[in-house]
Every structure is written in structure tokens, then in C-alpha cells.
Write a structure and sequence with these properties.
By secondary structure, the protein is an alpha+beta fold. It has helices at 27-33, 80-87, 114-128, 134-139, 144-152, 160-173, 178-182, 249-258, 261-264, 270-282, 289-306, 314-328, 362-371, 374-387, 392-405, 408-416; strands at residues 2-5, 8-10, 17-19, 22-26, 37-40, 46-52, 55-61, 69-72, 75-79, 90-94, 99-103, 185-186, 200-205, 212-216, 230-233, 242-246. The chain is built from 16 helices and 16 strands. It has a five-stranded antiparallel sheet with strand order 12-13-14-15-16. Strands 2-1-11-10 form a four-stranded mixed sheet, covered by helices on one side. Strands 3-4-9-8 form a four-stranded antiparallel sheet. Strand 15 and strand 16 (242-246) form a beta hairpin. It is elongated, with a radius of gyration of 27 Å. Residues 124-143 are annotated as: Disordered.
């Protein structure tokens, strides 16, 4: 492996280290060739410094030992990604030529890109503007119709929602609320959470921690939303934000009518679930007999009005739903939803996974896409959806791939997410 710093080949007396796709460079010769210096500080920290006329830049490495810094045979090694971030250099590795090319910045920490400068100025101007009224914040940039169009894409809202809203209107006249007892509120607008799966159409929000429910279209392959699996998305739950909780909307509402705790909580087994039920009944926070009677009345009216199916063993039902989904998965994904699409092009081919992490480079991604199966590419889209993009290059490559697949609805939801 050869290292070039600003076009000059660097002679090394010690080897580079490569662990998977993560590369570690010997700190002493590389940092000096870049025009920087380093010093050992108290407490095991290392300072990196760059001096230019009238300016000195210093950055400190405190907790990077083990992950970004290694001590091997009395030599300090630094992860290429960490060195790139702290020195504002550009580091590229080309596997075909086995070369590491480092392009240093002569003004580290100083923004010189006109486009970036313009963006910073725009943000500063926005901060100087008076705080908008709450109503203006809620208005957002999209109209309700635009948000609904992005959310549903090529699909139409199932008519069952008309029945739900109609029932709630009737109950409101009686001083009751369907949505209060369901534990979520209906809505046609799209999700602004980045880790909401891009092939999920949102239909309900709990109002807590961003938790929402939606139809899983499996990248638009579901023909009828009435038969689409229902997922619960927990944006604060990390990368594994989505979970299939019902086979379809009617069965989902049936489970909610019986016991919504089955949707929100996990239990080791049915016995643990029954024990928890008993404890909840004895809790000081347990609903009163009047509250339980009111909920039962409203749920019974919903079941009758919508002619919902009877689910006699709700705990066992949810176990079957999750097991059946797991059995249908062709390629596993980081978010747990997996890919279930079986494409003719994949017949007889072995699916090869690609780890999405901060060290993934554009060249490796392109090489993978050139040989990946159709299902493998869908899995990669899910993984980027869950973990995010670490560079605009990676995002651009995947957007091109989604365009090739005709995933325009998914791209619209991706672009509309703000968080």
C-alpha cells in the first residue's frame, strides 16, 4: 500500500493497518508530511496542530483510543476517517491501485467554499429574524394536500378511515372520543422523521415520542393498502425504529380494541403478559370501572361498525405475525423489517450483505451495487434509511439507484423528512 500526500509519495518504514474497511495510518510520518505537528498531553490525550502565517489551529484527541487511535509496536496509528475529520484533509483509498491519496487543507478550520459561506450567511440571517408565531411553525412549508400526496403517493387512503372518522363524529356528539380510546390519532400527512421507513405510509400518531403507525408497502409491491402489514415506528428507538404489529389494518384495530398494551410492549411469553395484566389491574394508575366500561362501549361500537374480525388469542396472534414476517425475509436489514421481495433476477444467486457504517466509501458502494442482487439493493436502501448517509456522495449514488428502480414515492418521502 502506497501513501501520497499532496502528490508526493511518502516513504514508510512501518506498515499500514487495515481492519475490514477501516484503515489506520502511522501518525508520526503522515502528520508531519501533512505539515502538522502532534504532542502528547496530560491524561493520555494527543494534540494535533497546524501553523500558518497569523493563525494556529489545534485539535485534541481525548477518547479516541481503541476506536480511532491504536498503539502498536510502540507506534501510534490513527484511523483515516478520524484524521480526515480533524485536519480537514481529503483522504481517498483506491483498492485497484492500493493507494492512499491525502490532499491537505492549507486553511484547516476556515470555510472557503462560496456555496458553504452563502449557506452560513443565510442561517445567520434566519437566526436574526424574530421568532415566528406558533401557528406559523405548525403551518410548515407543505399544504395538507401536498403532505397527503407525498405520504400516500400512488395509493389512496383506505375507505375504513372514512368509517373511523364518521364513527368519531357520532361519538363526539355524545361527549365521547374514539381516538382517545384508540390511543392514537388519525392523520393523512407524511412523517418528518428520517428513520421512518421510506416505504411506509403513515396513518396514525400517538402524540408521545413521535411514535406513529403506518402501512408497510414493501417498496410499493403491496397492491391494496387494506392488505398491507401494519408497522409501529418509534423514532426514538434508534436504528431499529420499525416493527410489524399486524397483518392488516382491520386486524390491527381488532388488537387495539382488545388490549393496546400488546402493541406497545414486549413480553417474554404469554404468562409474563398475563402477570403484567394482573399487576396493571392492581396499580394505582389502573382505570376506574367507569373508564373501563366507557372504553369497552366505544371499542364494541367500532368493532360492530367496521365489522372487524374476532381475534380470540391476541398474544398468540402477534407472535404468529412476527414469525411469519421473519420467515418471509429474503435479506435481513438493520431495522429488522427485512426485504421480502423475491425478484426473478435473483433466482439462483447468493445474497451478499454490505455493512453500512461511517467508513463506507463511494468506490466500495459502487462496486457492491454492480454485483448485488435486487433484494440486496433493497436491503441497502433500508439500511441507509435507518442509519443515514455519512456523505453526499453515498446519498447521490443511492438516489440514482432508487430512480433506476422507479422508487419516486419513496424518494418523495425521503426528501420530505426533516429530522
Amino acid at each position: 500500500m502506497i501513501i501520497f500526500v499532496d502528490g508526493n509519495q511518502l516513504s514508510l518504514g512501518i506498515p499500514l493497518i487495515k481492519e475490514g474497511r477501516k484503515m489506520f495510518l502511522p501518525l508520526d510520518p503522515v502528520i508531519k508530511a501533512m505539515g502538522w505537528t502532534y504532542n502528547h498531553e496530560e491524561g493520555g490525550s494527543i494534540s494535533l496542530s497546524f501553523s500558518s502565517p497569523g493563525r494556529k489551529t489545534t485539535t485534541y484527541l481525548h477518547d479516541e483510543w481503541g476506536d480511532g487511535l491504536r498503539l502498536i509496536d510502540d507506534h501510534i496509528y490513527i484511523a483515516a476517517r478520524l484524521l480526515e475529520m480533524r485536519t480537514f484533509a481529503e483522504i481517498e483509498y483506491t483498492s485497484k491501485t492500493d493507494k492512499v491519496i491525502i490532499t491537505t487543507s492549507q486553511t484547516p478550520g476556515v470555510v472557503t467554499d462560496p456555496e458553504v459561506i452563502a449557506q452560513i450567511k443565510s442561517r445567520l440571517e434566519q437566526r436574526q429574524q424574530p421568532e415566528p408565531e406558533e401557528s406559523a411553525i405548525e403551518a410548515a412549508d407543505l399544504s395538507p394536500e401536498e403532505s397527503e400526496n407525498i405520504n400516500y403517493g400512488k395509493y389512496s387512503p383506505p375507505v375504513i378511515f372514512d368509517a373511523l372518522y364518521s364513527l368519531d363524529d357520532q361519538l363526539q356528539k355524545e361527549g365521547l372520543s374514539l381516538w382517545d380510546e384508540l390511543g392514537f390519532y388519525g392523520g393523512y400527512y407524511h412523517s418528518e422523521y428520517e428513520n421512518t421507513p421510506w416505504d411506509v405510509i403513515v396513518f396514525g400518531w400517538t402524540g408521545g415520542d413521535g411514535i406513529h403507525f403506518g402501512f408497510l408497502t414493501d417498496f410499493g409491491t403491496v397492491a391494496d393498502l387494506n392488505e398491507a402489514p401494519i408497522v409501529m415506528v418509534s423514532p426514538m428507538g434508534g436504528d431499529e425504529a420499525g416493527e410489524v404489529v399486524a397483518n392488516n389494518i382491520r386486524e390491527f384495530l381488532s388488537i387495539i380494541a382488545i388490549d393496546d398494551s400488546l402493541i406497545y410492549y414486549s413480553f417474554d411469553n404469554e404468562e409474563a403478559y398475563l402477570v403484567q395484566q394482573q399487576q396493571d389491574e392492581q396499580s394505582e394508575w389502573a382505570p376506574t370501572e367507569e373508564e373501563k366500561a366507557r372504553r369497552r362501549q366505544i371499542m364494541d361500537r367500532m368493532v360492530e361498525a367496521l365489522n372487524l374480525p374476532l381475534i380470540e388469542q391476541p398474544y398468540a396472534y402477534l407472535g404468529r405475525v412476527k414469525a411469519e414476517r421473519a420467515n418471509r425475509i429474503v435479506v435481513a436489514t438493520h431495522d429488522g423489517l427485512g426485504v421480502t421481495t423475491v425478484h426473478p433476477e435473483d433466482n439462483g444467486r447468493q445474497h451478499e450483505p454490505l455493512l453500512v457504517d461511517d467508513d463506507l466509501e463511494a468506490e466500495e458502494l459502487r462496486e457492491y451495487l454492480a454485483r448485488a442482487t435486487y433484494a440486496g439493493k433493497l436491503a441497502l436502501i433500508r439500511d441507509f434509511n435507518a442509519k443515514g448517509f455519512n456523505s453526499e456522495d453515498l446519498e447521490g449514488i443511492m438516489v440514482e439507484e432508487m430512480v433506476k428502480f422507479g422508487f419516486y414515492d419513496e424518494l418523495a418521502r425521503k426528501n420530505a423528512s426533516a429530522w
